[in-house]
């Protein structure tokens, strides 16, 4: 395991020239900063975003600090199975290999909304990335040091991933409850995917990251309390406790490019209950590490998404 107190900064990002990177949700916040710093190190970065105009604007902003950046984009709506398949097919046509697949995009919805009988938060944050990753897995496997990163959250202390009530008929919906469950599912998925890749003797690594209390626009368009807390008015009060999006993205970047990282590691800020500081590896917790929970989540995601993973024989 990587040393837990190492002060890892953007200066540690290795040269990325010749590498192809896909970052979901790259038009703003953590995804934008992740894409920007990788582009500045020479990677070809694909901005996978729901809104093509925002992807174009993000690319223009990145070129302000990296004029020679190699950037492209693909439209991706992780709540739409057709969009996921179309985006994956387009990327398969463009890229012979994907060195880094960073599943950064996430959403928190103020009201319960179902997608094919499943809470939209879970569908967007877990089912969508599961399907997108599965459809591109062979391209990541084709890279000599391929890596998949799941951007999760500080959920390793949660004591349950409830997979029997994905429409919230029994529990009653709460936006942060739903978000936390989806982010715990991300962590469970990352460790289960690593177990299956290891069993297949594949060299691809899967890691996860929690960005900490980053000052971003996340949730600002969801309405209600979530939208209010993400508003510019509230961020003026919370900013002193928050870290910048750039600092938050360092957790993702360490999980993605640090050559000393091992598969299954989970990176979080190292101070203030993992809300501030520099990225360091920490225990993902008993639920995320439980193989039985991982296997059950895998079966459910496979059934609901219709995507079967093809591992090396």
UniProtKB/TrEMBL annotation:
Lineage: Bacteria, Bacillati, Actinomycetota, Actinomycetes, Mycobacteriales
Keywords: Oxidoreductase
SMART domains: PKS_KR
GO molecular function: oxidoreductase activity
Protein name per UniProt: Ketoreductase domain-containing protein
Superkingdom assignment: Bacteria
InterPro entries, A to Z: KR_dom, NAD(P)-bd_dom_sf, SDR_fam
Pfam families found in the cross-reference section: adh_short (PF00106)
Signal sequence annotation: none
Residue span, Ketoreductase domain: 19-179
């Amino acid at each position: 395991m990587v040393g837990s107190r190492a002060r890892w900064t953007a200066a540690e990002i290795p040269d990325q020239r010749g590498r192809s990177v896909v970052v979901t949700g790259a038009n703003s916040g953590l995804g934008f900063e992740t894409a920007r710093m990788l582009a500045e190190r020479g990677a070809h970065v694909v901005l996978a975003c729901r809104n093509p105009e925002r992807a174009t604007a993000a690319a223009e902003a990145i070129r302000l600090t990296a004029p020679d950046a190699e950037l492209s984009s693909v439209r991706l709506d992780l709540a739409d199975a057709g969009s996921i398949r179309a985006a994956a097919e387009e990327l398969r046509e463009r890229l012979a290999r994907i060195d880094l697949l960073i599943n950064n995009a996430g959403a928190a919805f103020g009201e319960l909304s179902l997608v094919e009988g499943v809470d939209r938060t879970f569908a967007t944050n877990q089912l969508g990335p599961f399907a997108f990753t599965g459809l591109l897995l062979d391209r990541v496997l084709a890279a000599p040091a391929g890596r998949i990163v799941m951007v999760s959250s500080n959920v390793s202390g949660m004591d349950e991933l409830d997979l029997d009530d994905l429409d919230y008929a029994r529990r009653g919906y709460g936006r942060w409850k739903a978000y936390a469950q989806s982010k715990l599912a991300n962590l469970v998925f990352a460790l289960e995917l690593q177990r299956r890749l290891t069993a297949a003797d594949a060299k691809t690594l899967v890691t996860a990251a929690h960005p900490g209390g980053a000052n971003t626009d996340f949730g600002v368009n969801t309405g209600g309390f979530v939208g209010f807390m993400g508003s510019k008015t509230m961020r003026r009060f919370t900013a002193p406790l928050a870290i910048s999006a750039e600092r938050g993205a360092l957790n993702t970047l360490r999980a993605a490019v640090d050559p000393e990282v091992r598969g299954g590691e989970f990176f979080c800020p190292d101070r203030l209950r993992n809300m501030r500081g520099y990225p360091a590896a920490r225990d993902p917790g008993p639920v995320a590490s439980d193989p039985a929970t991982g296997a059950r989540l895998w079966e459910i995601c496979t059934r609901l998404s219709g995507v079967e993973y093809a591992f090396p024989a």
